[in-house]
Design goal:
- The complex is a heterodimer of chains A (320) and B (238).
- By secondary structure, chain A is α/β, with parallel strands linked by helices.
- Chain A has helices at residues 3-14, 16-32, 47-62, 76-88, 104-113, 139-153, 170-183, 201-214, 226-238, 253-260, 272-289; strands at 36-41, 66-71, 93-96, 118-121, 133-137, 158-164, 189-196, 220-223, 245-247, 267-269, 297-300, 303-305, 313-314, 317-318.
- In chain A, helix 6 (139-153) packs across helix 7 (170-183).
- The longest helix of chain A is centred in the last third of the chain and has 18 residues, at 272-289.
- Chain A is elongated.
- By secondary structure, chain B is α+β, with helices and mostly antiparallel strands.
- Chain B is built from eight helices and seven strands, in the order H-H-H-H-E-H-H-E-E-E-E-H-H-E-E.
- Chain B has a five-stranded mixed β-barrel with strand order 3-4-5-7-6, surrounded by four helices.
- Chain B is globular.
- Classes of the chains: A alpha/beta (320), B alpha+beta (238).
- Chains A and B meet through strand 5, helix 6, helix 7, strand 7 and helix 11 of A and helix 8 of B.
Chain lengths: 320, 238
């Protein structure tokens, strides 16, 4: 039973006056406060998540909502607490970039049972019918674009390193699969090291340093996201290895600048801002008219960014 | 997997079979191998564990190769036969109105942001052959002007998930996650390679007549369509 109904029932059980007071209070609150949308994402240290949260917040405010923006820091326990907070604050919907494909299912279900629908962005969960929407970048399509560019830059041969994202995140696996489904078709492309740097820039920096010591003869690095690509690029630069080809994934402004300065060679733009806005639009439609999205799982195609179009990239959007 | 085993006569098919077997085994032997080159496979167990965790109501282990093989002749080919339009008509309509072309000759999911996938039948002369790359293609001139106006993938490596994306009876909702959905898309490419493309010659292609039923994605309008075939017939050497 939705929590609000339960509260009202309890009040009714007490006294008639209490019930009247409760409904009067509800009337007052609905007359004065705007509906609330909670936006929960990983840490904004990564500009991708910041762009997402900003995109969702801008759209929610435009549609007349109050916004509660929170970060779970990829901690599933913290995420669970934040979802409790959103429920307790009476959020009408939750926009969520989640903290783990398996660990999140229970938290989203808890919100659903409390009458608060979740609209997932960027990352999937391993269950359907729990969230109302799962809007994700077409990571497989995007990874194939990135890998095709990488193979071309490598001249279809040579030693390379793969940096993989956080294992609890399906996006780490799907991008790796997209990369390998292309790269493994080229027998002269040799992967000499494959390590997870958990999407983290400093971790990628230190991993890259030690990989480079063990494998000085590398020609390229393909990374599961842009922050790890930035970390790897910095380590390569510090080692005087400007010859190594680095390709990332996300389409951040940092990598855009690096591409334009001749550092990182390419990345793949995920329409993060747009996806977050789409999620809020779908949440709004549900709040106002109880219309659920036509399809729960939704893909958004990615775009390759290299020196030919990097100049048009701004905050995860491609300017016309 | 059974499917490819039955057909593993040629060395290329054997190679991909070996690779697949290895992937299965690595996934069983799990994390010890986590650093090995083929480890896109270590994400497979998640799906297996998931289906176990979900209890007996869940279907048996996900087998995209089997799904593709069992749907191919009865569902996929008839669907293409029904939906595919003459190449010139589809292409010209798409240039004018992608929505109209998509509604008549294509498919795309109702939610999300993905381009239309259009289904076509084309006939012409092979005027280009790029068979150096494993992602080999031929350029087909369908108008008799001597210039390629369609590029057709002939494998063994096929790019994209065009065949999967053309099918209106397939939904991302029916898959545990993007990884399974991607494996399903890749299974179509492997099937087409083994069943349709593998037997094509790789030399003396230029000048031959060719007829193709296939699909292309409207992802980069204005560029020469990149067609993934479901059927292809090559004429004799000129």
């Amino acid at each position: 039973m939705p929590q609000k109904d339960r509260e009202v029932t309890v009040n009714l059980r007490h006294t008639m006056a209490g019930a009247l007071f409760a409904s009067a209070a509800l009337l007052i609150s609905s007359a004065h406060a705007a509906d609330l949308i909670a936006i929960i994402t990983p840490s904004h240290d990564n500009p991708f998540f910041k762009a997402e949260a900003d995109g969702a917040e801008a759209k929610a405010k435009e549609l007349g909502y109050d916004v509660l923006s929170l970060v779970h820091d990829d901690d599933a326990n913290k995420q669970s607490e934040l979802i409790d907070t959103a429920i307790a604050r009476g959020a009408k919907a939750i926009i969520l970039d989640n903290a783990g494909a398996d660990a999140t299912v229970a938290a989203v279900k808890k919100a659903k049972d409390a009458g608060v629908p979740s609209f997932l962005i960027d990352r999937e969960i391993n269950a359907s019918g729990v969230a109302l929407a799962q809007i994700v970048s077409n990571n497989y399509q995007g990874a194939q674009l990135g890998a095709q560019k990488f193979v071309k830059l490598m001249g279809e041969k040579g030693n390379f390193v793969e940096l993989v994202g956080k294992e609890s995140d399906t996006n780490a696996g799907i991008r790796s699969k997209g990369y390998h489904d292309v790269i493994d078709d080229y027998p002269d492309m040799k992967m000499v090291s494959r390590q997870s740097a958990n999407w983290s820039q400093p971790e990628a920096f230190s991993k890259m340093e030690s990989i480079l010591q063990a494998n000085p003869n590398i020609k390229g690095v393909i990374s599961g996201n842009d922050t790890m690509a930035m970390g790897a690029e910095a380590a390569l630069k510090a080692a005087g290895r400007k010859d190594v080809i680095v390709v990332g994934f996300d389409g951040s402004n940092d990598v855009r600048d690096s591409i334009m300065q001749g550092g990182i060679k390419a990345t793949v733009l995920q329409p993060a801002y747009q996806g977050a806005q789409l999620a809020v639009e779908q949440a709004d439609a549900y709040v106002k008219t109880k219309t659920a999205p036509k399809s729960e799982k939704q893909l958004m195609d990615c775009v390759l960014i290299d020196d030919s179009n990097a100049g048009k990239l701004e905050t995860f959007q491609l300017k016309p | 997997m059974e499917v490819s085993r039955a057909r593993g006569s040629d060395s290329r098919a054997r190679l991909s079979l070996k690779k697949k077997n290895l992937m299965r085994w690595v996934s069983v032997l799990a994390t010890v191998m986590a650093g090995a080159p083929l480890c896109s496979c270590r994400f497979i167990p998640t799906a297996d564990v998931q289906s176990l965790a979900a209890g007996p109501s869940q279907e048996k282990a996900f087998d995209p190769d089997k799904m593709v093989a069992s749907d191919w002749a009865g569902k996929v080919i008839p669907y293409f036969e029904k939906k595919a339009g003459p190449f010139a008509e589809v292409r010209d309509l798409a240039a004018k109105s992608p929505e109209e072309a998509g509604a008549r000759f294509g498919y795309r999911p109702k939610s999300g942001e993905v381009p239309w996938t259009l289904m076509v039948k084309l006939e012409g002369i092979v005027v280009e052959a790029n068979t150096e790359s494993r992602a080999a293609t031929i350029g087909v001139d369908t108008t008799g002007k001597g210039k390629a106006d369609a590029t057709v993938q002939i494998g063994p490596a096929l790019r994209g998930t065009t065949i999967r994306d053309a099918l209106d009876f397939v939904s991302f909702n029916d898959f545990t996650n993007q990884i399974d959905f991607a494996r399903y898309g890749k299974a179509f490419n492997l099937y087409v390679d083994h069943e349709v493309l593998e037997k094509l010659p790789r030399d003396a292609l230029i000048g031959r007549k060719v007829a193709v039923t296939g699909a292309y994605s409207l992802s980069s309008p204005g560029e020469t369509p990149l067609v993934t075939p479901v059927e292809i017939t090559l004429g004799p050497k000129p």
